[in-house]
């Protein structure tokens, strides 16, 4: 099917989705591929990459990449032609209050989410008119006492994107999508009952009375990728979570 609307601009473009082996990243890779983009996913886990390729449209490629390793990120981009769009969708962070979360786990979260974005923003080779898009999260706008670090990380990623938008203008646009709780395999760690309870709780409290799925966030990420007049923007796709 020929893509319509703004996503038609993805036809024939080269799109890299880092963290594309599950959840939001996988949904983004799938949508981009269906819209005619030449898509590569990148992540640390070989097993997860192979499993994702079995689910994704044919023609999607996969590469190993650890964004926490600055030299690996620099080498990865230096060996490949410039991308039209780079999406950084995956991160590994720990949840907990400032007083309860062990410092090594807190620092590992910072290394992965903030420094991972920094490394990508620093080294990504993007063609003129292309884009880099990060994922933050609603806790940057709505602090949570049990996720203070995540709020700080999300705010840092958003500030990084605004600065990069100026640094890399006018050739490259840099934006952020900020979701709330999203129905992805991430929540399987709670077990079936815990996952169901979390989703029910969020549906009850969100103004829209629905929890986003990965496809909702993928659409927002690719909208910003192709929107030629958006840079330095943070797009809340949170079901109204920041309002309540």
From the structure above, extract its key features.
two-stranded parallel sheet, single chain, alpha/beta, 244 residues, 9 strands, seven-stranded parallel β-sheet, 19% strand, Rossmann fold
Structure summary:
The protein is of the alpha/beta class and 244 residues long. 41% of the residues lie in helices and 19% in strands. Helix 4 packs parallel to helix 5 (148-167).
Describe the protein's architecture and organization.
The protein has 244 residues and is of the alpha/beta class. The protein has helices at 23-34, 46-55, 70-78, 103-123, 148-167, 191-205, 214-226; strands spanning 14-18, 38-43, 61-64, 83-88, 126-135, 172-179, 182-183, 212-213, 234-237. Strands 3-2-1-4-5-6-9 form a seven-stranded parallel sheet, sandwiched between helices. A two-stranded parallel ribbon has the order 7-8.
Topology of helices and strands:
Blueprint: E1 14-18, H1 23-34, E2 38-43, H2 46-55, E3 61-64, H3 70-78, E4 83-88, H4 103-123, E5 126-135, H5 148-167, E6 172-179, E7 182-183, H6 191-205, E8 212-213, H7 214-226, E9 234-237
Parallel strand pairs: 1-2, 1-4, 2-3, 4-5, 5-6, 6-9, 7-8
Helix pairs in contact: 1-7, 3-4, 4-5
């Amino acid at each position: 099917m020929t893509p319509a609307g703004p996503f038609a601009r993805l036809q024939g473009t080269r799109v890299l989705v880092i963290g594309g082996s599950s959840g939001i990243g996988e949904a983004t890779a799938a949508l981009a591929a269906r819209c005619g983009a030449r898509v590569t996913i990148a992540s640390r886990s070989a097993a997860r990459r192979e499993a994702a390729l079995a689910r994704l449209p044919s023609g999607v490629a996969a590469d190993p990449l650890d964004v926490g390793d600055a030299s690996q990120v620099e080498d990865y981009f230096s060996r490949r032609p410039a991308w039209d769009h780079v999406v950084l969708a995956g991160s590994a962070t720990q949840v907990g209050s400032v007083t309860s979360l062990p410092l090594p786990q807190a620092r590992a979260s910072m290394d992965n989410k903030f420094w991972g974005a920094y490394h990508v923003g620093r080294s990504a080779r993007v063609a003129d008119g292309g884009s880099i898009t990060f994922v933050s999260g609603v806790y940057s706008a709505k602090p949570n006492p049990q996720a203070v670090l995540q709020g700080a990380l999300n705010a840092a990623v958003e500030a990084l994107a605004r600065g990069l938008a100026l640094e890399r203008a006018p050739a490259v646009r840099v934006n952020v999508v900020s979701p709330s709780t999203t129905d992805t395999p991430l929540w399987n760690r709670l077990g079936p009952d815990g996952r169901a309870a979390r989703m029910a709780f969020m549906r009850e409290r969100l103004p829209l009375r629905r929890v986003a799925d990965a496809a909702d966030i993928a659409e927002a990420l690719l909208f910003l990728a192709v929107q030629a007049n958006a840079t330095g923007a943070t797009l809340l796709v949170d079901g109204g979570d920041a309002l309540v």
